[in-house]
Amino acid sequence: METEKNIKKTVKEKYSEIAVQTKAHNSSSCCGSGVCSTEIYNIMSDDYTKITGYNPDADLGLGCGLPTQFAHIKEGDTVIDLGSGAGNDCFVARAATGAKGKVIGIDLTEDMINKARVNGDKLGLNNIEFRLGDIENLPVTANKADVIVSNCVLNLVPDKKKAFLEIFRVLKTGGHFSISDVVLKDQLPESIKKASEMYAGCVAGALQKTDYINIIHETGFINVKIQKEKPIVIPEDILSRYLNETELKAYKEKGTGIFSITVYGEKPKETCGVNCGCS
């Protein structure tokens, strides 16, 4: 099993490469993993092009949902995007929160932060900022955000419980999150789990759906619900790079499920304890 340090190093290196790749290259693979398929279609991400605030320069085709569409962002809100990449969800959030609000994008990769800042400068917006930081130790004070969004990123974080504790800390009381992520139903073959390309490509780092939802509840969030769920079908020519013929047959017969979910949760309005940041 990879150590947390090695996992973060792998993800950081891979997403530094992705930052300079084209959207077409990223979209034909698993969250930009580089494991390209001859079946050229976008495996995971949804279409942003008709959403207000969409910026094609910031769309690298890396997401697995549309969390901002479900995030109930209001004018004047402070919104934080975890794993902001080139800034796509931040610019969509800015269109919803308006000039009176604030949008903060946080990413682990310097190249992504630089790309997002360039994209932001082109738009001339003064209420969006991009910060280099780790989701397990967010560079944000407690009780800062009205809304937190994230798109296909938390599954790459080694310690999901710690990440959700940070989300809880940073949200204002009564604030909420809408997060799109990859989860599993049943177990993936070990050969896929061990492949670092698939890890950086959003699959091998994913939790079981029930475990993922349980972590959210254990962290203290309420009114947790699945806003959207869809199956992720990985083309056979990709799977065959990781599974031999016998393993591939068994995998298909077993019906192991990989899903994109968009999940919502709220920080209680009246709360106090070690996670709330109110002391």
Report on the structure:
The longest helix has 15 residues. The relative contact order is 0.16. The chain is globular and about 60 Å long. By secondary structure, it is of the alpha/beta class. Helix 5 runs parallel beside helix 8. Strands 1, 2, 3, 4, 5, 6, 7 and 8 form an eight-stranded mixed beta sheet that branches. It is built from ten helices and eight strands. The protein has one domain: 3-Layer(aba) Sandwich (Rossmann fold).
Q: What's the arrangement of secondary structure elements?
A:
Blueprint: H1 4-18, H2 23-27, E1 78-82, H3 88-97, E2 102-107, H4 110-123, E3 128-132, E4 145-151, H5 160-170, E5 171-185, H6 190-193, H7 196-200, E6 207-208, H8 209-219, E7 222-231, H9 236-239, H10 245-254, E8 257-266
Parallel strand pairs: 1-2, 1-4, 2-3, 4-5, 5-6
Antiparallel strand pairs: 5-8, 7-8
Helix pairs in contact: 5-8
